[in-house]
Amino acid sequence: MNDRQHSTPDALVVGAGLAGIACALDLCRAGLRVKVLEASDGVGGRMRTDRKDGFLLDRGFQVFNTSYPQVRRRLALRDLRLRPFTPGLLALTSAGRVRIADPTRRPGAAGSLLPGRVLSARDIAALTALTARDVLLPAGSVKRRPDRTTSAALSRAGVSPRAVEDLLRPFLSGVFLEQELATSARFFHLVWRSMARGTLCLPAGGIGAVPAQLAAGLPDGTLHLETPVAAVTDTGVLLEDGSERAGATVVLATDGPTAGRLLPGLPVPDGRTVTTYYHATDSSPLTEPTLIVDSSLAVLNTCVLTEVTPTYAPPGTSLVSTSVLEGGPPAGDATVRSRLAELYGTGTDAWEPIATYTVRNALPAMVPPWPLSRTTRFAPRRYVCGDHRATGSVQGALASGTRAAREVLADLAHP
């Protein structure tokens, strides 16, 4: 190693999730000496993919949206070999299974939006107007709107209770990881805008390919895995093994609870928990890459991942992903498979359980009024970033890491 690699870094970044990697990249590009300390054995934080017996298993069902500004700025999308979901969804409602499709992308599916078939004419007009405002107005205008719950925003937009209960609540519960639609309308409008403008995809190598590509841009010797931090000190950080790492500037890019533990006094929002079940089957129960939502809310959503990208399972095998709120139903897998038999209209007794992931603090609870961005400054030379400091999304995490680097550099230039 050269003297630069041996010398005390200008900044320590604790956590190699999206926010930490983005911050470290920007600081390195500005010429700072940076060390990234990650507690686990890989990068990505909650955005990880495990490999097991030929299956790709994301740690909780996740999708990748191509419209986010930070995504377009930082990632080589072609190299991720993205495969799209159907621009629409299937919903099992009180009236049976219905399909909602985006007619601007699939003109042949426009019949699904005929008044009375799924939505009333008033609902179609209300959702069309809401979508047009979110797509056409600058994203910054969302910050200036009075905040309220998503439920209140939909009612204010003229969407009927039936449309909310049959379609929007089941779908958005899977986005927000809560059923009451108590999430900030500011976040809802940004999500709605991003879905209308972008494409929901999965990388061929699993969702973990996204942070892996970002981390590949870090200079050699920057990233240190399996290096858990126990405390932030006056001179840097104390590791769990008792050793110390010096660094005049420390950026915490961990999840909210960890940041709150390492920086006493930091306000941390509550977190949402989700459980994802993976099942393998010899034949696909739905031969299209479409998300299914459940108006009974017994499950949040389910899909056949191998219809999106076949790389998620060994040849000749289909992989089904199903997510439920919190830790799952009391009977767990058996209850979930029973509901899946109704959702897919096929027997599920022979489906093989592959893995179950319960992801705690999968998203921050973004209750109104929710600031879409906030300073990362906590104390002199101490910063904190992550989706809990912005919005619970890839865009939010990357934007918060970007802001942390910008504020670090500004403070170094003007102490």
Strand content: 15-25%
Looking at how many chains there are and whether they match, the oligomeric state comes to single chain
Query: How would you sum up the major sheet?
Result: 7 strands, mixed
For the termini, the CA-CA separation is: 31 Å
Low-confidence stretches: 1-5
- The number of helical segments is 13
Strand order of the largest sheet: 8-7-16-17-18-15-19
| Overall number of strands | 21
Q: How much helical structure, as a percent, in the residues? A: 25-40%
- Globular, elongated, flat, extended or rod-shaped: what is the shape? globular
Task: Tell me the layout of helices and strands.
Layout: H1 3-6, E1 11-14, H2 18-29, E2 34-37, E3 49-52, E4 55-58, E5 64-65, H3 69-74, E6 82-84, E7 88-93, E8 96-101, H4 121-136, H5 140-144, H6 150-156, H7 161-176, H8 185-197, E9 200-203, H9 209-215, E10 223-224, E11 229-232, E12 236-239, E13 244-246, E14 249-252, H10 256-262, E15 271-281, E16 291-294, E17 301-304, H11 305-308, E18 318-325, H12 333-344, E19 352-364, E20 377-379, E21 382-384, H13 394-413
Parallel strand pairs: 1-2, 1-14, 2-10, 7-16, 14-21
Antiparallel strand pairs: 3-4, 5-9, 6-9, 7-8, 11-12, 12-13, 15-18, 15-19, 16-17, 17-18, 20-21
Helix pairs in contact: 2-13
Protein architecture, described:
This protein has 415 residues and is an alpha+beta fold. It contains 13 helices and 21 strands.
Defining key terms:
415 residues; 13 helices; alpha+beta; globular; seven-stranded mixed beta sheet
